[in-house]
Write a sequence for this structure.
């Protein structure tokens, strides 16, 4: 089995940003145990920015400007990797650094290149250590947390399990920091509950973290529609990775994999691409897309927002103003007004039959 294990900043650093050596040691030990048991593992590790804080003298909290954060990442990433290298070496394992950015998921050629690299590392027995390429990332097109990257990497390498390690024991019915009545949800099979649980969970747990439970539940949704089981559990739990691999009850919160797995292309369009605009449709078009898997035709379009060109991703909103799909549009925003509401036989010469073809349209669960 291929397992992707993600650990967040709050679980791997102290309050002052210093890397917790014992946290790296624990995670490395558990991943090494999984590899010795015949599994392949990818680690997605936050902590580079936090690791750079004390080195550059930021002892009074995390700065907010992106350029300083990128500088901190450049300093901290090598220190983080050095600790992983030392720990994995003690178990006879080699780890390798892989820095990813949104473009590696958005551009098909980059996606395939990253996929080949990760798969070759796994075949060579290497444990890839993945992080967002914070040092050079364009602030306008960066993820900002590693949870979604971990879910997309899980799909990329064909993983069966995603383990999201955090500073709480799992998903709760309310924010356990403020509600003593909050209880853990051990198994989630209905993905429609994820939004409700995310709203109840609160924001990021610490100033050092950037994700929080909401981003983990969003990542679990991506993984579930990739056919990947997700376990959200406490990083300090004894043998948490082994118990997650074994499907041990009580290990944390499990979000089950959906039986109908989205293709790489549909997942890429629905969850990795950034929308350039919005297309609004009527109830008939929504029903055709959602219930029959049809392409989006011009006749069902009632309006649009944003500036986009053919091939750009756009959100699709229904008459209730809810986004229910995302796809690659074949008509620019400049031309959309001229074709909206037209039947196929009335379309201008040369205009595409479909505004968004069904093969480039992902219904968002």
């Amino acid at each position: 089995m291929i397992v992707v294990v993600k650990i967040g900043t709050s679980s791997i650093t102290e309050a002052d940003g210093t890397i917790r050596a014992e946290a790296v040691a624990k995670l490395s030990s558990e991943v090494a145990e999984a590899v010795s048991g015949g599994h392949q593992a990818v680690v997605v590790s936050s902590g580079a920015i936090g690791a750079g804080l004390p080195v550059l003298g930021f002892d009074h909290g995390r700065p907010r400007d992106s350029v300083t954060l990128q500088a901190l990442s450049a300093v901290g990433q090598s220190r983080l990797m050095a600790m992983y290298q030392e720990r994995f070496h003690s178990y006879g394992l080699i780890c390798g650094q892989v820095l990813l950015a949104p473009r590696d998921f958005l551009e098909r050629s980059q996606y395939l290149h990253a996929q080949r690299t990760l798969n070759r590392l796994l075949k060579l027995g290497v444990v890839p250590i993945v992080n967002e390429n914070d040092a050079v990332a364009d602030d306008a097109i960066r993820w900002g947390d590693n949870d979604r990257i971990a879910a997309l990497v899980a799909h990329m390498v064909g993983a069966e399990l995603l383990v999201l390690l955090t500073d709480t024991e799992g998903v709760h019915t309310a924010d356990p920091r403020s509600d003593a009545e909050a209880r853990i949800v051990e198994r989630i099979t209905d993905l429609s509950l994820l939004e409700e649980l995310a709203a109840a969970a609160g924001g990021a747990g610490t100033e050092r973290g950037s994700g929080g439970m909401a981003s983990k539940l969003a990542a679990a949704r991506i993984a579930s529609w990739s056919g990947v089981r997700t376990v959200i559990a406490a990083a300090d739990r004894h043998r948490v990775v082994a118990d997650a691999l074994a499907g041990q009850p009580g290990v944390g919160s499990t979000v089950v994999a959906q039986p109908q797995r989205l293709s790489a292309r549909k997942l890429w369009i629905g969850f990795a691409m950034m929308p350039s605009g919005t297309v609004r449709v009527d109830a008939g078009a929504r029903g055709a897309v959602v219930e029959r898997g049809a392409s989006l035709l011009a006749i069902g379009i009632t309006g649009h927002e944003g500036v986009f060109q053919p091939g750009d991703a756009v959100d699709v909103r229904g008459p209730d103003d809810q986004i229910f799909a995302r796809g690659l549009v074949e008509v620019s925003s400049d031309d959309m007004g001229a074709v909206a509401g037209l039947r196929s036989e009335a379309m201008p010469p040369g205009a595409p039959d479909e505004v968004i073809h069904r093969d480039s349209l992902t219904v968002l669960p």
